[in-house]
# Entry
Amino acid sequence: MTLRIDISGLPAERLRFAASPLAELTAMLHVLAEPGHHPQYAGWAGDVWAGLRPELAERLREAEFLWRSSRADFLVPARPRPTLAEELDDVDRIDDETYVTAALITTCGSKRVHFAAPSPLADARARERALDLAQARGALQEAFAERLLADPAAVRARVRDTLEQCAEAFFDAAWSRVAVPLATDLRLKNDLLKRQGVGAALASVSGAVTLAPDGTCVVIDKLQDTATSAHGTGVTFLPSVFGRPHLVTVHAPGWQPVVQYPVAEPGPSEPVSLETVTLRLEALAHPVRLRLLRTLARGAHTTGELAHAWELSPPEVSRHLAVLRRAGLLTAERQGRYVRYTVNVPDLTALGTDLLAVALR
# Structure
């Protein structure tokens, strides 16, 4: 499954790589709301929570629906600014209907079509539907949605004030620490874009981001099948240190496509595709293949040895081994007349982590 961003005819300069203070603050807020997604920052999250004033901690819980399971689109800017204040000024320029719709989508956990038209700010039935959706998710979501619909200006001012308090409490210090890796990553991406073109720049973003063979689409490995267009707007790519392992995308109608991607870390950390994870899970779902794998985990075996051990025919064993090999779970080594199979331990060990990464991407 993929998100496809149509870039046919788009000049290379309309693909922008830039750092966003607001998007990185939002990534940090997500870490604070879901530390289990980011074990590498569990200590940081614990320290931040321990140091927060009770009032600010309560405010973060009150508005966490804007960044917990997904990000409100206005928190991932398409036109990054040098400072958080400037980006918050841009958010203030968004009209109430656009802001409220984006906030309700994350608060209610709903598909965008539910709030397309008429607006819940102007239509009583649409308002009740939005509140029903929020209520189904819990009392806190319902209370936030009620305040948002009753007085958007007050809620918007409170959210901005909360984000400004976060800057003083923890963001400014963390932002100064991530400035160097973000700048380094941006130099690499912009250099690749200039010297080698769009395909090379996208390949360096993530193994989950590619350029279609015909060069007309950016293809992103996500859990949904959807499409959007960058015509007239371009695409913005935002590096993130705190965002790993998420690959956050903004692709709603009316919003410029934005991709927030994790800055690469040293070591073999290229993401595995959803197709590969699915292939491996399907390969392991068959009881015979699982039995063969258990035997191979104890040492190398030939097809004949496996057939004898499990009282199966050699052709049947060969068929199962072929499935496991296509999934990348076995390696084969010829020794004279025989081929001996062994388990690909690193990829099998990483399957749980890969599955989680795909689900969180």
User: Anything to note?
Assistant: The chain is about 55% helix and 15% strand. The first helix runs from residue 21 to 33. The chain has a mean pLDDT of 88. The longest strand covers residues 235-240.
